[in-house]
Design goal:
Residues 248-585 form the Mannosylglycerate hydrolase MGH1-like glycoside hydrolase domain. One of its GO terms (molecular function) is Glc3Man9GlcNAc2 oligosaccharide glucosidase activity. Keywords: Glycosidase, Hydrolase. Belongs to the glycosyl hydrolase 63 family. This protein is of the alpha+beta class. Among the domains are: 28-200, Glycosyl hydrolase family 63, N-terminal domain (Beta-galactosidase, Chain A, domain 5, Distorted Sandwich), CATH 2.70.98; 493-613, no CATH class. It is built from 16 helices and 28 strands. The strands form nine sheets. An eight-stranded antiparallel beta sheet has the order 5-6-7-8-14-12-11-10. Strands 1, 2, 3, 4, 9 and 13 form a six-stranded antiparallel beta sheet that branches. The protein has a two-stranded antiparallel sheet with strand order 15-16. The longest helix is centred in the C-terminal third of the chain and has 22 residues, at 544-565. Residues 1-6 have low confidence and may be disordered.
Amino acid sequence: MSIALPLTSEAYRQAQQRLARGWNTWDTRSLLTQVLLPDGLAVALGVKEYYRGNALNQIQIGRREEGAEEVTLGPHAIDGAYTQVTVRWRGVELSVETAHAGDDLVVLVTPLANQAQPATLTVSAGLLWNRPGAVRRAGESLVAELPGRKVAVFGTAPHYDDPYVDITGPYLALRLDGPVGVSTGERRDLARIREIVAAARPAAAASPHEELVRDAIAWNTVYEPAGQRVVTTVSRLWNVGKRGGYALFCWDNYFNALLAGLFSADLAYANAVEMTRELTPAGFVPNVAQGTGRRTYDGSQPPVGALAARELYRRFGDRWFLEEVFPGLLRWNRWWWRTRRDGELLCLGSTAFEPQWPSPQDIPRIDQHFGATCESGCDDHPIFADIPYEKSTGLMLAHDVSLNSEYAMDCAALADIAAELGHDAERDELRERGAAVADAMERLLWSRETESYRSRRTDTGDFTADISPMSLYPLLAGVGAGGRDRRMVERYLRDERYFGGRWAVPSTPRTDAESASRSYYWHGRVWPPMNFLVYIGLRRAGLAEERRWLAERSAELAMKEWNEARHVHENYSANTGEGCDKANSEPFHSWGALLSLVPLIESGAVDYFREGA
């Protein structure tokens, strides 16, 4: 198992303790399981239908197999004080609302559609993760005996015996011939449960974008028991498929920290700290760390951790947080320069190693071209197709425009953190290195012919033939001397032959007919982190008109499927704005909320990346 490093500060221990308490959707395996922390008591809801006599005991969003449940995720308070889910399965449709009543949990289940014979709601209880205690059924209730106390679970409908519900352990079976309530702690009637739920329903958010960000983060926040930590993952379904219970992806989780920072300093800190604590012995944050014990010891992902940490510090001002993450972020920054440098600039790479536990996920990537492209965060992007991979060095044969831009940005953000902490030598080291990279980018990666920054081959000296929005990333590092930034942006960003149009920004130019027609993964799709980084670059460059345009495009794209289905997608079609048109676009992926973060920053509702800061 991948066990997190020991906690290093009392302040962070306290932050995790504040997070890991109360009823919430802590268990990644089912949206309808509520868990009480720190006890680990789970109350799990399931459904049995009687046309075929099948039971559904674990509910997820995003399953695509035939006969899978369909789920619409409603509002979710960050602390779990209210949640709402609609589940449709085999002719049964249920609205499930939960709320807190002091330290208790109440649940209101309302049938919206049913089979001829009404479905059954199953309510089971148990102790997760081998937490101490026991659960038994006592007539019309379940009783959990926990260390030092008891917690009872009651239903508003009478229990009836149905032994074929596919549950191991005590349960209640309640007929869904009308609304049914569940409560813990004390018996409450349906009217009282309705009152509690109605009072807990959140008022309309100031902006639908705030609601989108909140729910994208809250629904994907889980308790990870191996590391005894609360953390936001990118997708609950991804955690349980082939990743052993959880998966922390590098730049995804630093983005999750920024997103969580709109609502909870503790959760924002947890996301940044836990990702940084996954640092490998070699000194880098891996592409992914997961519950099977697998880490990508061959490579990392874009270095955005210092950027996130700096902005969270500017928002909340907790010095201990910088002290917590700075050592790891500094090791990571130095690792890039030591391991991925070829001459004056960096190349993407994949370091050879022998996995202790070989994984089929590693087969196509370790010390291979695909592994190196994954380090960009853009996996199968066609811009890398014609760049060779050199096994003797473990490097792609190109100075990558995106990686060097992100690295220079990382140096600047990390230097700001070093200065705040009084680490003058490290501040000077980082500023010098960042300036050297930015200077080399100006000299080596600017193509006069195309008026754009391009990756450049280290073997031939040629610029890469194709352009992508990554050519705009140098603006993140303040690169663009002599008006180059403005000329490039004016030529490419809003031109509909390249990256303009209603559904923007496509990951490849619209003139790339194959990618535009295929619209598959990084071939022509719109990716939220790409929009976000381009926006931050435009903001730094002072290109106000262009950044407003991108904020408008991002806002419209985010709202399209949010208004239609409350989806927050991993990626979107640049032709139609749809996310559901492709199976490999996860429908409730946390970083989809970056599209909403852009207009929130632009409007001033969120004070990240303040001008002049």
